[in-house]
Amino acid sequence: MTVIAIDGTFSSGKGTLAKKLANHYGLAYLDTGKLYRAVAHKALGKNISLEDGVACAKLAKTIKTSDLDDPILKSGPVGAAASKVSVHGDVRAALFKFQKEFAQNPGKAFKGAVLDGRDIGTVICPKADIKLYVDADPKVRAERRHAELIGYGEDISYAEVLSQLIERDTRDTTRKNAPLKPANDAHLLDTTNLSIEAAFETAKQLVDVVLGK
Ligand code: C5P
Questions:
Q1: What angle do CA 15, 20, 21 make, to 5 degrees?
Q2: Which of 9, 55, 141, 185 is the most buried (most CB within 10 A)?
């Protein structure tokens, strides 16, 4: 069973990379950000305060795989709300089991799993076979995200996207519970000047070494 743990900043390209690696190696893929987004979406829908860690943790305990398919989860406001609910230790604890089980039992069709998020290499899968930490210049990430949001039909300026991204990075890296940081044994991948294909090739070379290919 192979486990690949991918962490990194918002819009660094980690999700695209994770999906490509999962396809290439026949591994199941879990975008763990969607778990936090699903909790945030439920909280917003039920008028539950994002500051209320206990109430949000109750919602987190109810999250199922089918909750993760809603396209609304990809929106900017849900992402920002996800970053707020993810600061609570109770919410993180409630989502721990889902992630751990996915990594350990990805299903018979798969040879293992790829998980991407903020604390996969540090908390969820500290014994992963390989850990990648993906980052890029904030301005380049904001350009990518801006193009993506315009594609979803959102009306937002580049400057606004950049300022939200910096706010999100700051919250994710400075929170008390499982802050975003590279695991000590993570390989750092800076995608500022890399195409999706080039990032994939670089990551593939690292994984091939670990898998003895
Ligand atoms: O990766 P994505 O942008 O979908 O994540 C949304 C938010 O969920 C992040 O900004 C982060 O605060 C939180 N998150 C987290 N731990 C993870 C995945 C996401 O705290 N493993």
A1: 100
A2: 141
